């Protein structure tokens, strides 16, 4: 697998990576925007991408859904938290967040989507269909697994932090 860099515009660097297509037998080019400030940084980033693609560890963030990212995040969290915490994270991520936001790709996820999901969960979020989730559960959704989506920003899988800008309902004292 080969690749090279190209500068398009002022300070915009792209890696063009040649990938063979096994079905057709011809090469296909993948353009990937780089977060590089100069030519040398772009070359290093391009080499890293070529290495990841040839190893099979490259993940195209444009195709990763929220559900897939949450499953990856849970796999990362499992050895780092207690079994009870992991069980709660898994419940919140796969049974509460994924049904509401799971089919949206990470790059398309916006704060409005998250706010609408919280509103829908408060209104009719219970799995048995009898009412909504408590504000405290919404708060837990916002603080734990949704924070994993925010971590996607830190590792470069999202271009923004949608969770940070989403309006969260605070639990009320009864």
Brief summary:
This protein is α+β, with helices and mostly antiparallel strands and 174 residues long. The chain is built from seven helices and three strands.
Structure characterization notes:
49% of the residues lie in helices and 13% in strands. With 174 residues, the chain is an alpha+beta fold. It has two domains: 54 residues, no CATH class; 100 residues, DNA polymerase, domain 1 (Orthogonal Bundle), CATH 1.10.150. Strands 1-2-3 form a three-stranded antiparallel sheet, covered by helices on one side. A hairpin with a 6-residue loop joins strand 2 and strand 3.
List the quaternary state of the chains. Answer: single chain
Q: What is the CATH topology classification name of the largest domain?
A: DNA polymerase, domain 1
Summarize the amount of helix as a percent range. Answer: 40-55%
Question: Uncertain regions: pLDDT < 50 for 5+ in a row?
Answer: 169-174
User: Termini separation (Å)?
Assistant: 61 Å
Count of helices? 7
Give the DSSP E fraction (strand runs of 2 or more residues). Answer: 5-15%
Mean pLDDT across all amino acids: 80
CATH class category label of the largest domain: Mainly Alpha
The backbone outline, from C-alpha atoms, is: elongated
Give me the count of strands. Answer: 3
The structural class is: alpha+beta
Q: Can you write the helix and strand succession as a string?
A: EEEHHHHHHH
What's the story with the biggest beta sheet?
3 strands, antiparallel
What order do the strands of the largest sheet run in, or round the barrel if closed? 1-2-3
Q: How many structural domains can be distinguished in the coordinates?
A: 2
Query: Which architecture of the largest domain does the CATH hierarchy give at level 2?
Result: Orthogonal Bundle
Rg, alpha carbons = 20 Å
